[in-house]
Design brief:
about 140 residues, mainly alpha, extended
Length: about 140
């Protein structure tokens, strides 16, 4: 997009949609917090409590989301490893499946409790690196002028 006005409009509309989606998730959760705080999947518990019929639809959507994320991440991870280690792609797939099998037995809440903070720190470091690169690039452009 070359037009800054269109870019700004797109950013505002997209941000507004994300805020609305976030509110659609957080408001029901906060309204029934005492009930849902004991569950690993609070949204699923909330749906079960208020509309049992929708529970299966939500489960299917959730499983498809997990599966699509897992497939995408596995593909990227395999490509990353394939370029760095000299292993047959089939062997990498088998190793990845075995690792996934054992990781799945750790339990969802244990994985979230141990892995998410690591990703939070990595994300924070990434924000710092992007900000540093942005400022550095801007300073270089100003020196050229």
């Amino acid at each position: 997009m070359n037009d800054k006005k269109n870019a700004l409009t797109g950013a505002i509309v997209s941000g507004g949609i994300l805020v609305l989606l976030g509110l659609f998730l957080i408001i029901p959760l906060m309204n029934d917090f005492e009930f849902i705080k004991q569950f690993e999947l609070p949204m699923l518990a909330l749906i079960y409590k208020h509309n049992y019929a929708l529970e299966y639809l939500y489960l299917i959507i959730l499983m498809l989301a997990i599966f699509s994320t897992a497939v995408g991440n596995a593909f990227i991870f395999m490509e990353f490893l394939r370029k760095r280690v000299n292993l047959n792609p089939r062997t990498l797939k088998i190793i990845l499946c075995i690792c996934g099998f054992f990781t799945a037995h750790l339990g969802f809440s244990n994985i979230v409790r141990k892995i998410y903070p690591v990703f939070g720190i990595i994300g924070f470091l990434e924000i710092i690196a992007i900000t540093y690169a942005f400022v550095r690039n801007r300073e270089r452009k100003e020196k050229v002028k």
